[in-house]
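Sequence in, structure out.
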Amino acid sequence: MTVALIDGDMAIHMACAGEARQVDWGDGNIEHWVDADEAYTHARLLAESWRGKTKAAAYVFCLSSDYNFRKWISSDYKANRTGPKPETLEEVRARIETNDRTCEIVGLEADDVMGILATQYPSLYVIASRDKDMQTIPARVFNPDKNRRPIKITKDMANRAFMRQVMQGDPTDGFSGIPKIGPAKAQEILQDPRRLLREDRIISKGKNKGQTKTTYKLDEKCGVWQAMLDRAHVAGMTEADLITQARLARILRAEDYDEEKGQIRLWHPREDVWMSLDQIIDNLEEGNEQHDGRGNSG
């Protein structure tokens, strides 16, 4: 049996926005409302539609926790999402939690829940979401906007998509990536990772005569992370800065979550760095949202 992991946050938001209504009573008096019954039905119809297209036998709404461990890593994470939530969103979510099959892990986002389950039990689960970030998960993924059927994301494909996301950043989520690295440049680095060689020369003519001009040229081949790090350094970023970007971009997989210990693995290019979710939540409750970003857990 296959079970569809529904991006519950997205389905609920789409349903509430889709059922929004307004009436102009004149004199500038415009009333807005969302019928909770209709929005709840809409969310379930979306889930059922996505389930059907994945050929799954059942579905589960995956939901984000009120706490978000990425806000502990960086207080800028999704800080730009300050607009009002669709009306009745919380009411519709509460109905789904009461009446439907759901999965939520305290401290994690719906993306992480889907990533963990789909990589822990790849033959059982298929992800159903419109979010492009699902391409960073090595699992079966269905995007209702783009796919006719689920596609299999291999580990190599997922890792490359993850590194691409780190380089490009995601302004909607509040992290910028490496300055001046767009899709084309990121793809170039993934295909042919090379060191950057710094060259300084003294300008011999013109108004800038006597000044030093610094340029960089491609040098020897290297690993993707080293190539990314060289470009980050040129842009004035430290490795800790780049690791922070990676931790914000990384959707957790099964190997990044220890349910028994209540810990998550914070991404690092060389080390195993684990952190207690309880400790992260305690820090968030105390208002200490900023992680030190240096690749340690304290």
